[in-house]
Amino acid sequence: MPNPRHLHRAQRVLRRLGRGLSRKAGPDRRAGARPSKRWQRARARLARVHARVANLRRDGLHKLTTRLAREHGTIVVEDLNVSGMLTNRRLARHIADAGFAELRRQLTYKTGWNGGRLIVADRWYPSSKTCSGCGTVKTKLALAERTYTCATCGLVLDRDLNAARNLAALAREAVDARSGRESPNGRGADRKTPLAGQVAVKRQPGTAPAGQTGTVPPQGRTTNHTLTRAH
Ligand SMILES: [Zn+2]
Questions:
Q1: 229 within 8 A of 112, measured Cβ to Cβ
Q2: Dist CA 117 CA 105 (whole Å)
Q3: Rounded distance, CA 116 to CA 67, Å?
Q4: Distance CA 197, CA 125 (A)
Q5: What residue ranges in 51-167 does DSSP mark as E strands?
Q6: Cα of 156 to ligand 1 centre, how many Å?
Q7: pLDDT tens for residues 60-101?
Q8: Residues at Cβ < 5 Å from ligand 1 ion
Q9: pLDDT, tens digit (0-9, with 9 covering 90-100), for 59-71
Q10: How much is the pLDDT for 52?
Q11: How much is the pTM?
Q12: For residue range 121-165, what is the model confidence (pLDDT) as tens digits?
């Protein structure tokens, strides 16, 4: 999934403008000095770039979520342990940049436009550690291991693709469970989401090392996963 990194790209510009601002004579409450005209202009320049960055991010995210909701009936996201991940400073900026909460909010209502829906896998579901072939759950999977290799059945698959397949299987279970409950005359019966339209939007809950966040449960205690409807 493309990550809108407009902020990252604009950071150099923001830093330069910020330095320029600090070199000019700003307001000084203790000395009673009023800001110079140059300082005021520099501050306005900085504010314009900040506003532009915010607009770019908002626009990019809306385009992404509209496209995802239009092209796919059912979308699966993993419920990220965002507060836990934010304690990892390197990850924190990426998550803040991607605006995950906003992404999820937009997907929730936009999938509804087309009769689809957003499915949220709970944050402890071991999507990366589970073999999509035989269901074996690894106790350990380093983030650096980009290829999933199953010691049980011999499956070799790209890490993210393996996780996406697990999430797609979860979504299938959810769709089956839902359609099984509905009466044949039910309003939603003929609008059942085709399985081919599913996509798993992969977010990595396992990217925060367990020892650093203190919020990731012990290995192997993650089998009791649930699916919840976001709307
Ligand atoms: Zn396997």
A1: no
A2: 12
A3: 13
A4: 22
A5: 74-78, 117-121, 147-149, 156-158
A6: 9
A7: 788 888 988 898 878 888 776 555 555 566 555 555 656 777
A8: 131, 133-134, 136, 150, 152-153, 155
A9: 878 888 898 889 8
A10: 83
A11: 0.55
A12: 877 888 889 999 999 999 998 888 899 999 999 999 999 899 989
Tokens of 140: 């350990």
Distance CA 231, CA 229 (A): 5
Closest CA to 227 of 164, 137, 163, 167: 167
Six-digit token string for 88 = 């990892």
Going from the Cα of 162 to the center of ligand 1, the distance in angstroms, rounded, reads 10
103-117, 127-141, 206-220: the lowest-pLDDT one:
206-220
**The tokens 């993210």 sit on which residue?**
160
Tell me, in angstroms, the distance from the centre of ligand 1 to residue 176's CA.
24
Q: Which residue has the tokens 């919840």?
A: 228
The Å distance, Cα 69 to ligand 1 centre, comes to: 32
